[in-house]
Design a protein that fits this description.
By secondary structure, this protein is α+β, with helices and mostly antiparallel strands. Helices cover 20% and strands 23% of the residues. The strands form 3 sheets. The chain has a 4-stranded antiparallel β-sheet. β9 and β10 form a beta hairpin. The longest helix is centred in the first third of the chain and has 17 residues.
């Protein structure tokens, strides 16, 4: 699976997103429409998007673990700062698409300006329930810890006082070497037991320091990323994850 993300820079990570028009609907209306509470099961969230259709899964995982892997991969795309606004790309509980044409903003104690989510996980409780269905408690806290700015931690995702999900609108851009390699990820099993499974995701990258040959191809190199799943009292959860791009 190859995917080009918006070519924004890491400098956007702590840039405030201001001057955006407020939506016509009130916050209460947005939450009433988008909240999937009482209809969602953590093991089915988030939905697996169409762009992941070609993402290979490790064949040594059980079907339950394969499903968890794909959903964690989907969530990591916005949690790890690739494109935070992707959290609002999922369909709403009624199957319709969120209206992303206008956003409200809120400035929190960190002095950062956040977008108020209008999507499937517009309520913090629903967002957190989705994370609880994917990750171990300790790893969830790591993912939500945020980035360091001037010695302070600035979370990418957080909650307003009235329980709404909000996030910094940032993207770190695409890894062109990964995309240009046009080779699927592969996996190597490290260890597997009834309580844990560890494996390595191997991503492929085109060496852009070398001129392409007459066929437009370049040498390929690989990078390895550790992934760990653990069995908890609530089922399998991801305890470490990395994206190849």
């Amino acid at each position: 699976m190859k995917k080009i993300l918006p070519a924004l820079t890491l400098a956007l990570l702590l840039t405030a997103c201001a001057g955006q028009e407020a939506p016509a609907t009130s916050p209460a209306d947005v939450l009433a429409v988008t909240s999937p509470t009482k209809e969602m099961e953590p093991s089915t969230e988030p939905p697996i998007p169409d762009w992941m259709a070609e993402q290979p899964v490790p064949d040594f995982l059980t079907p339950e673990q394969q499903d968890l892997f794909l959903r964690a991969f989907s969530a990591a795309n916005f949690l790890m700062g690739c494109n935070t606004s992707a959290v609002d790309d999922y369909p709403l509980a009624d199957g319709s698409q969120p209206d992303k044409s206008n956003y409200e903003t809120v400035t929190l104690d960190s002095s950062q300006t956040y977008l108020l989510s209008v999507g499937r996980f517009a309520r913090w409780d629903d967002f957190e329930a989705m994370l609880d269905g994917l990750f171990t408690p300790a790893y969830k806290e790591t993912l939500l810890a945020g980035e360091i700015s001037d010695g302070a931690s600035v979370p990418l995702f957080t909650s307003t006082e009235d329980g709404r999900l909000c996030y910094l609108d940032v993207s770190r851009g695409s890894d062109m070497e990964y995309d240009m390699a046009d080779a699927p990820d592969v996996y190597e099993l490290v260890s597997q037991s009834d309580s844990a499974v560890e494996f390595t995701l191997i991503g492929h990258y085109a060496d852009l320091t070398v001129e392409a040959d007459e066929n437009g191809t370049r040498p390929i190199y690989t990078e390895a990323y550790p992934i760990r799943m653990e069995r908890t009292g609530d089922g399998w959860r991801v305890a470490e994850f990395h994206l190849p791009y």
